[in-house]
Amino acid sequence: MENQNLLIFGLQLTIIGMGVVFTALTLIVYVLKLMDRLTPWLEKFGGSGHGHGSQAEAAVSGETPGDLTPEVMAVISAAVIVAIGKRARIRRIRYRSVQPANAWSVQGRASIMASHIVKR
Question: Does residue 62 form part of some domain?
Fold first, then answer.
């Protein structure tokens, strides 16, 4: 008799736990959908601040984004050597002229770049 009560209690606990998890995941989905719809509106009115620093710095220094000094090329070359662990030849560096669609794409790129392990 006691085993049957424990079995019923276990089933009740399982159903309640699965219900709570399912409800929480559903709530997270709706919050993410809401944030996805609000992001363009927030960027239009509030501004996100992403992607404007490089243009402002280029305007202050008097250089156009297409002009790279030899020092900048040397720094980029050194970073490539450190990142991949061997010498590489840089043929072309292009600036990204189109701003990202929203903050989600910026964060996605940042997380992908952060996931790569740099060997030292």
Answer: no
- Structure token pair of residue 97: 């002229």
Exposure letters 2-41 (e unless 16+ CB within 10 A, then b): eeeeeeeeeeeeeeeeeeeeeeeeeeeeeeeeeeeeeeee
73 and 43 part of one domain: no
pTM for the full model?
Answer: 0.39
Question: Does 85 reside within a domain?
Answer: yes
| pLDDT tens for each residue of 41-99 | 887 876 545 444 444 444 445 455 567 788 888 888 888 888 888 887 777 777 767 66
pLDDT of residue 47: 56
Q: Which helix (H) or strand (E) is 38 found in, with range?
A: helix 2-45
Considering its fold, how many domains does the chain have in total? Answer: 2
